[in-house]
Specification:
single chain, 16-stranded mixed sheet, globular, mainly beta
Length: 274
């Protein structure tokens, strides 16, 4: 197996696992105020190839935005030292997503993306008046390099890869339900089908808890990830609908991502790793 293939598996599963999650085409049944003060922390492990070694950490935080009707979600995916020691590779990806809180639709996405020596900064602005998303990517190491620009048509309800994580938590989940939803990434727009396929018990940092088994269709030609694979996400069957575990399978290996801690600033610590 080549190093480039291994890197592809890691980035596909860890950087896109929760961000590439879910959102229905219809508007959510509530708004984002319920998330304010939350911090979610995850750990990613690669099986088969690296035998369950922890290779990444993911963190999501939610807070009020600058405007009275704005909501800010920050996320960070960072490689752990183990990955650098084993294959000489490190990554860091930071997102900031600004949303309109009542309609829970994305207004702006900024991203800082580091993959070893490669660094890219980008911004996507969503104009619902013009029905357009405008994306600009720059190289901070080479300010003379022309920016990469992409513009795509959007509808009245749109989400980026981070707001999708929280959006699905506002939807009424039940076994057998199917949805199709629009997600924009790097200026492009995708329609992503997903299905709630079962209700299963999971062992989590919150204890043994019933969860919805959700399967987004993100692999294949013309989709978010243009290769063969499968993703499953487990979300708690309670009012929070927390994503507590995700599993990404490819022909080259499997990545498990599990919730390690959940805190809420106005309620104290809900769960921490033992």
């Amino acid at each position: 197996m080549t190093l480039s293939i291994l890197k592809s598996i890691i980035l596909t599963a860890i950087l896109l696992c929760f961000p590439a999650a879910l959102f229905a085409q219809t508007a959510p049944v509530s708004n984002g105020r319920m998330f304010v003060g939350e911090t979610l922390k995850y750990e990613g492990k690669i099986n088969k190839i690296l035998r369950g070694i922890s290779v990444a950490e993911l963190t999501f935080t939610a807070a009020p935005g600058a405007g009275t009707n704005h909501f800010l979600i920050k996320s960070e995916a960072r490689s752990k030292g183990t990955l650098l020691k084993l294959i000489g590779y490190n990554f860091l990806q930071k997102y900031e997503s600004t949303l309109e809180i009542e309609k829970f639709r994305i207004l702006k996405t900024t991203k800082h993306d580091v993959q070893k020596q490669r660094v890219r900064d980008s911004e996507a602005i969503f104009s619902y008046k013009d029905k357009m998303v405008s994306f600009v990517e720059t190289d901070p190491k080479d300010p003379m390099r022309p920016p990469r620009r992409i513009a795509s048509e959007i509808g009245e309800q749109m989400y980026d890869m981070i707001s999708a994580v929280y959006g699905v938590r506002l939807m009424p989940l039940a076994a057998g339900k199917k949805y199709e939803f629009p997600v924009s990434d790097s200026g492009l727009v995708y329609k992503v089908p997903f299905a709630v396929t079962a209700r299963e018990m999971q062992k989590t940092v919150l204890g043994n808890i019933w969860c919805w088994r959700v399967e987004p269709d993100i692999f294949g030609p013309g989709r978010l990830i243009e290769q063969k694979g499968k993703m499953v996400i487990w979300m708690t069957d309670d009012a929070r609908q927390l994503p507590v575990r995700a599993e990404v399978q490819t022909s080259l290996g499997k990545v498990d991502i599990k919730l390690k801690s959940y805190t809420k600033s106005d309620a104290g610590t809900v769960a921490r790793p033992s």
